Amino acid sequence: MCVAGARPNFPKLKPVLDALDRLGVATTLVHTGQHYDHIMSDVFLDELGIRRPDHSLGAGSGTHAEQTARIMTAIEPIVERERPDVIVVVGDVNSTVACGLVGAKLGCLVAHVEAGLRSRDWAMPEEINRVVTDRLSDYLFAPSADAVDNLRAEGYRADQIHLVGNVMIDTLFANLDRARARLPALLERSGLEAGHYALTTLHRPSNVDDPDQLRGLVGALEAVAASLPVVFPAHPRTVERLRALEVPGLARLRIIEPLGYLDFIALQSTATVVLTDSGGVQEETTALGIACLTLRENTERPITISEGTNRVVGADPAAIEAAVLDVLSNGVTPRRPELWDGRAGERIGEILLSGGTAATRKRPTDL
After folding, report:
1. Segment 221-275, tens digit of pLDDT
2. Which residues, in sequence order, are bridge partners of residue 275?
3. What is the spatial distance between Cα 125 and Cα 367, in angstroms, rounded to a whole number?
4. Which of 31, 38, 64, 203 is flagged as catalytic?
5. Residue 107 burial (CB < 10 Å; 0-12/13-18/19+)?
6. Is 162 a catalytic residue?
7. What is the maximum span of the chain, computed from C-alpha positions, in angstroms?
């Protein structure tokens, strides 16, 4: 059983589904509905060629507790009825931890794709989801060597941990030519010139729910816009916060609706610099060789700094402006981590098939 529910989950799950299909493994696809409108959900299924889900839970929005509880109560009877050998969960959203918890309590093997990532920032709900999901899981599929180190340090057994590479990069490479084919029309429609614009995304509560912090970030982006155009595909909740600010500098930013997967990859591929608080974007820019400035105080993906094109600059406007000027003056050296080669899904599929129903529950040595 393969589970997804939020926008970032779909490109992570696609390579795993494809690999299992090629290996002849029967899969049940569950969409929890954590993200549920067209641009946040359906467009990803359509553009990535993901089949219609076998079960759609319709969880919707709400507080973390409400959403997690709805997902758990909705998926429990499905798992009880179908009794999958393995439940595959991806990423770090509420759907991930909710379905992992139900699967573990019902005696299913649980596989966590993107295991071992750590920001060590307990103010991030995603960090709690990551740590809890790893504790529930039998298969820990790590995207990078630093994630493996984290898991070993936390007491997980060697036979649980598998360094497989990054499934996000599988999907990126598989769709890059299609995305770039859309670029000329996209640039013309947006009034942009290839290689001469900044691309921005903001969605984390620490950035968009604090009016003072959001105001400072907008001020920094306004300053960047004096040097090159800033295009800002904005999440619906971010747009709501921006409107409440009533900041004059907003007019200097090109705020547009959220983009589908292909259009967003296309814009990333020729941006001068990407400013973001998204973990997935840090990975994609590294794979594309594009400069990335992370507008947070930490990252759960330090490999994108040590072996990629990312830099953590925080939310201080002066630091952001200085970092952009440095990119404009000096550029960035393209680098890519080991095993980010487009074959992570294949490795996961082969490991799951070789374990099969004979696999036994494996838990950390300190539990």
Report:
1. 999 999 999 999 997 778 888 888 877 668 899 999 889 999 999 999 999 999 9
2. 200, 293
3. 23
4. 203
5. exposed
6. no
7. 62
